[in-house]
Design brief:
Blueprint (H helix, E strand, L loop, with lengths): L2 H4 L7 E7 L5 E7 L7 E6 L11 H10 L5 E6 L11 H13 L8 E6 L1 H17 L5 E5 L11 H4 L16 H8 L29 E7 L5 H12 L6 E6 L13 H17 L1
Parallel strand pairs: 3-4, 3-5, 5-6, 6-7, 7-8
Antiparallel strand pairs: 1-2, 2-4
Helix pairs in contact: 3-4
GO molecular function, one term: hydrolase activity
Organism: Piromyces finnis
Protein name: Alpha/beta-hydrolase
Amino acid sequence: MSKKSMKNVLKKGYTLTRKETLNKTKYIEITKDSNKTPKKVIYYMHGGAYILGLTNTYHSFSYPLCDIRDDIKVVLLDYSVAPEHKYPTQINEAMDLWDELTKEYSPNDIVVGGDSSGGNLSIALIHKIKKERGTAPRGGFFLSPWTDMTCSGKSYYDNYSKDVQFGEPNKTLTEEKTKIIFNSEIFCFTGDAEKTDPYVSPLFGDFTTFPKSLFIVGSDEVLLDDTLNIVNKIKENKENEVELLNKEGMFHTYPLMSIMPEAREACKKIREFIANCF
């Protein structure tokens, strides 16, 4: 990553602060200069296959979220990256920051979110919070979450020729290519962990109960089934509230591309979802 992509992107009317927990977990807080004490929190985890750090793309993504209400703040986890730091480093850091936040805020005042590997981490965090703390955040929104390290989704094959980021135009995903991908650096964060561990592949977790949630994915992604399979599991309990936006012709984490009308539409839905949670 370039040094430029790591610099703070500051915007008039907002404050961005870099912080650490007592356990040295790094994070960023973004608030609106409203003179109101934050009472609600959006706790977001960035994507990048666990090998890319927190870029300033997420600063720009976060500022509009602060406009949902005057007493809200966005917290961006700046987790340690692979291959230097493998599982369970990232989930432990995510839990450490959750514990830091819940010293001041009720879980019911926190919405978690994430894209791609950050979607993986945020859903895994919900599993861990439920199991170890007996609670859950008020809601969660997930953009193209990477949820299945076993790559069992049929969409890997169906969408390989359509995926502009991870596929090849007019090519077929063969067994040989699958093995190459499966053993590539993309999966290095898992280390020696079982790929079916719910904290590694949250698809294999318990969705009997799950917070109110919004999933956004593109129809042309190889990772499409990583979203659809989780949504189907959540829907098995009709008391769970889950909404899916599967946007035709869109690609991986497209809501981050703010210049596109489809991205702006998705971000509007995200803001409405968060507002309805709070």
